[in-house]
Amino acid sequence: MQWSDEDFRAGPPSRRSDSETRPTSRIRPPATGAWREGDHPGNRQFASLGDFTFEQGGEVPLRVAYESWGELNADRSNAVLICHALTGDTHVAGVAGPGQSSAGWWPGMVGPGMPFDTDELFVVAPNMLGGCQGTTGPASISPDGTEWGARFPRTSIRDQVRAQAALADHLGIRTFRAVVGGSMGGMQALEWAIMYPERVGDLVVLCAPPAIDAMNIAQNTLQADAIRLDPAWRDGNYYDAGAGEGPYRGLALARRMAMLNYRSDSELEDRFGRSWQSSVSPAGGHGRYSVESYLDFHGNRFTRRFDANSYITLANAMSSHDVGRGRGGVDAGLAQVRARTLVIGVDSDTLFRLDSQHRIAAGIPNSVTGPEAFTVHSQFGHDGFLLEIPAVGGAIRQFLEGASLAGTSFGDASR
């Protein structure tokens, strides 16, 4: 399969008219995959929270989109906050439908009898500040009547946490029973425990480092540059572009680059090796390796649900992550965490390596697994925290039930 414009001609259902009868593979991508005013809200709820000022300057009218499951009890003591990863959203659990073209991104984790048991817990998941699925971000309309675009203020992880805290205030939640986050969401969870120690009961950090290192910053920069180098980028002013005329090539390339960090080399080798699509060998100059088509598929699909400006904003926010900034260094920052904490890592993770999770566990005073993180054995790399539900869900369930998890630090939480 050749990677061409034809591979990108699939828009989300919310962008298609009822009269559209062409196969989805023939529909050109929209200028942005962001959720926009007038789109179906799906299961989203919205909170307008007034003006918000950023760490590095700038102000926006803040609206936060979120989803929730379960019921908040009378004293509001059963709330759990789930913070999503870089390209995640509010839809942690649930089926696909209008306004939400994909099923929940953490299946088997939230619901009655599940690790986050909604018979007892109230679970809330906001879209992060700078995102593109309902919370104020670059695709939102600014006070001058046009999209913020590349003018959106430079955003930090700490800005995102303050926006989440404003939502908690709006919902009347003073203290969370637990704050949970994976990947970029894990960075936010860590900052929650340091910035608002009195508001965090238990803390779960999955596959996140205490600070972003030079390699991660370099990867984020290259992905952002892939978008900016797209001729259709137009300095971020592409929202009026017609279908197929936005910076989808650059956004898809950024996603393809990122996918190589999310999965392990052993998984790609086992799944694809040197196999190719159809009967035409790449050696003849016209065929395509299966792994190339795999990356094409993910890049293509991503352009239907994300915004190029938002990707750059969030990549920069991720690069800002450093729990030691202004606190005397990483170790001093980690030492400020008071919450009882479960740190989970995946042994094949090459994006945020396991030793960075061990460092968090060793630096936090109340790690339930001692100086080493709970380690999940997985071939799936960084995405293992999303896919290894028996091990990850079992560990979280035991943790929330009060178990120490001592002695179950290598992926055997289901025993």
From TrEMBL:
Chain positions covered by the region annotation Disordered: 1-42
E.C. numbers: 2.3.1.31
Cellular compartments annotated: Cytoplasm
Enzyme class: transferase
Main localisation: cytoplasm
Subunit composition and interactions: Homodimer.
HAMAP family documented for this protein: MetX_acyltransf
Protein's name according to its UniProt entry: Homoserine O-acetyltransferase
Organism: Gulosibacter faecalis
Higher taxonomy: Bacteria, Bacillati, Actinomycetota, Actinomycetes, Micrococcales
Primary gene name: metXA
